[in-house]
Amino acid sequence: MVTSVTSASSTTTTASSSASTALASDFDTFLTLLTTQLKNQDPTDPMDPNDFTQQLVQFSQVEQQINMNSNLETIIALLQTQQNSTNLGYIGKVVDVDSNEAKLAEGGTVFWSYELPEGTTSVQYNILDEDGNVVRTVSSASGDDGFTTGSRIEISWDGTDTSGNALDAGTYTLEVTAKDSTGQVLDGTKVYARGYVEAIETIDGEQYLIVSGMQVLPSDVVSVFATSDTDSSES
Questions:
Q1: What whole-number distance in Å separates Cα of residue 155 and Cα of residue 127?
Q2: Using CA atoms, how far apart are residues 64 and 235, in angstroms rounded to an integer?
Q3: Which helix H or strand E contains 84, and what residues bound it?
Q4: C-alpha separations of 42 from 37, 38, 94 in Å
Q5: Ramachandran assignment for 61, one of left (phi > 0), alpha (psi -120 to 50 degrees), beta (any other)
Q6: pTM for this entry
Q7: Would you place residue 193 in the very low, low, confident or very high pLDDT band (cuts 50, 70, 90)?
Q8: H or E stretch including 35?
Q9: Distance from first CA to last CA of the chain, Å, rounded?
Q10: Strand order in 122-128's β-sheet?
Q11: Can you tell me whether residue 50 is helix, strand or coil?
Q12: Given Cys at both, which of 20, 139, 140, 202 links 3, Cβ 3.0 to 4.6 Å?
């Protein structure tokens, strides 16, 4: 479901308008009191004009602050509208998200992508369930089909364990361990969840992309692809 944050912008604008209305009412009351005081002051001991001049300056400063807040609210609303338009552009695209967690739907397939550091000669993939149990392990080495370093590769998982049994729907994690020719574990392996952007949802004023069933912040998206541009899956 696609929603917007228009209501939040309206709320802030209403608050600014209410503050302006209250200030105008207070200012009218102040002028009425001031006029009454001037009419009834003792001619032999008139009021000090510095007092009400200072009060007028204070009212002016408050008015300027309210106008400044109103302008800032307008700018924020415009930025929110621009961000909403940008987020709508994700719908229908494939994205890589800065997370190694992905959601498996019943009977579905999960996709990740990964990058191996230079010098990698072997790699092990572990898929973990929500309890941290390893449900599937795959190893690959230099010379195997699809083995490469220095570029992003897509990997797909059909939701089965090592014995071929279908696993329950839920969130699963991919851990990728890269090693060099001496068996030393290498740093710099990057893993991303890859999925299709189905919709946008606004939750507590924050917009989320719905990527293959998961709520993802737009700021966590690291790459965007047209569906025809994604690499062939490596099983």
A1: 12
A2: 63
A3: helix 49-88
A4: 10, 9, 80
A5: alpha
A6: 0.61
A7: very high
A8: helix 6-39
A9: 32
A10: 101-104, 170-179, 122-128, 134-141
A11: helix
A12: 202
